Amino acid sequence: MSTRLDRSPTSGPGRETVDIGLDDRARRHPLDLRRLEQFVTVVEVGSLTDAATELGVTQQALSAAIRTLEKQLCVTLFVRTRGMQPSAAGIRLYEAAQALLAGASRTVRDVQAAARGHAAALSIGYTPAMKAIHAYDLVAELVPRDVPLELIRVESTAIREQMAAGDVDIAFCHDALPPEGLAGKLVGVLPINVALRTEDAARIGRDRVGLSDLAGLTMIRCRSDGESVDPGRVLARCRELGFDPDVENIRCLGLEAVSMPLATTQGFAFVSDEVGVYFRGRVTVVGLRDEIVLPVQAVWLRESVQGLAVDVITSLRSAVATPSSDLR
């Protein structure tokens, strides 16, 4: 016995017809992780030929694996009219498969740690706008002291990929909303300070400066992973406050944001570093009177968290984020 479900496709004419068999055998057979990994690659690449090349298998073998998965689940996973576009069932399996594969990778780490007689590390990711200490402060009190913490710097665009690979359990980013495909909770804000050459800071003569004090100086940025604060977002906030600085893209890539004033003359950089003196007195970081903050979002891959990560996420979700919940 089977039931036919008609579902409107997300785009294009016509309707997609999916045959779903109600045979309980589909529920009793566990999903093969290797086939799931192959399926995820096809979805992400969008081509059976290219996916086969990436996986190092023949196109015929990959096609057979996808057909076997469809037969096992009694669903159509791809609409094959234009390339390999996932069906509604395929999209749902893709979401679940990422969580299952991440959970499997995490299980390997947990089992290996148990064999060595100690707890597995909890891997915490943080984006370049933050410092490792910021991420540490957010979870330190939530993790037992005998559990190792691994702090991993990760680009915002790579968070989901790192989680799907099982390399990161929880991450902190400065997005107002969680990246697509991830669950999240706003847990605080990250105050932004200003880095200046020490002689420019001395000329201004204040421990905390207003944006108007920066008039005549150039906002410095570079296109690299060393840039700690999203300049577009901060610049938009400056303009909201009536400050529209000139912007200079420096030539030297890879510099930490706090060191950028040294790459030019009469420039400043927005940073998340603490107020203080850096590089043997060559750079001074001062606070801002016109407060600029970035949201701090805790994110995780839906349905993949397990073990201690569940407890940490539960605690983070119950926390109340307020403007005073900053990471100074």
From TrEMBL:
The keyword Amino-acid biosynthesis does not apply. PROSITE patterns: HTH_LYSR. One of its GO terms (molecular function) is DNA-binding transcription factor activity. Keywords: Activator, DNA-binding, Transcription, Transcription regulation. One of its GO terms (cellular component) is protein-DNA complex. Gene3D superfamilies: Periplasmic binding protein-like II (3.40.190.10), Winged helix-like DNA-binding domain superfamily/Winged helix DNA-binding domain (1.10.10.10). The keyword S-adenosyl-L-methionine does not apply. Residues 31-87 form the HTH lysR-type domain. SUPFAM superfamilies: Periplasmic binding protein-like II, Winged helix' DNA-binding domain. Residues 1-23 are annotated as: Disordered. Belongs to the LysR transcriptional regulatory family. It comes from Gordonia phthalatica. This is HTH lysR-type domain-containing protein. The lineage of its organism: Bacteria, Bacillati, Actinomycetota, Actinomycetes, Mycobacteriales.
